Amino acid sequence: MKETEFNTKILCLRDAMYRLARSLLGDEYEAQDAVQDILEKMWRDRVKLGNYTNLKGFILVSVRNNCLDRIRKRKVRRSTDLDHSKQLSEKTPRNYDTEDLVRIARKAMEQLPEKQRSAIHLRDIEGLELEEIAVIMDTDEGSVRSNLSRARKKIRDEINKVLEYGTK
Questions:
Q1: Among the CATH numbers 1.20.144, 1.20.1050, 1.10.1740, 1.10.3470, which is that of 3-74?
Q2: CATH 2.60.40.10 for domain 84-167
């Protein structure tokens, strides 16, 4: 793969790579580092990239694996409960605007288990099909559906919890 082809086929995926890394790692700088590491690796192995039929899938799998390795190295334990005292102000549900709800949903998404977080990001943010997500996550479509359903329920429950708490 020559430089122009690399720029056309690989560098155009940089935003999707970053969004996935940011979603998994929860830190913009670490996500940028992860994307840079993957791009450097892809550049070194550019001769082999022509062998992949689903290049985008291969790259997103590489990003996901890199992020999982980083998470394991950090040995971060994510809390399953959100700190409501930091999220809530003196607002009632009628006063929540779209930005508030998006912030709450993002925070809830950060707290999801890795498989659920990956599935919901790849489906609802990247817009990938279930079949593509199954390949990227190395699982079957049923597991992807299950992870999506659980993730969406947890986010919905967290938003409802915040809204209920705000009315008290």
A1: 1.10.1740
A2: no
Mean of the per-residue pLDDT values of the chain: 80
Task: Write down the pTM of the prediction.
Answer: 0.56
DSSP the chain: --HHHHHHHTGGGHHHHHHHHHHHH--HHHHHHHHHHHHHHHHHTTTGGGG-S-HHHHHHHHHHHHHHHHHHHHT----SS--HHHH--S--GGG--HHHHHHHHHHHHHTS-HHHHHHHIIIIIS---HHHHHHHHTS-HHHHHHHHHHHHHHHHHHHHHHHHHHH-
What tokens were used for 99?
Answer: 């930005």
pLDDT at 52: 82
CB 104 within 8 A of CB 97: no
Q: Which two tokens stand for residue 77?
A: 């334990």
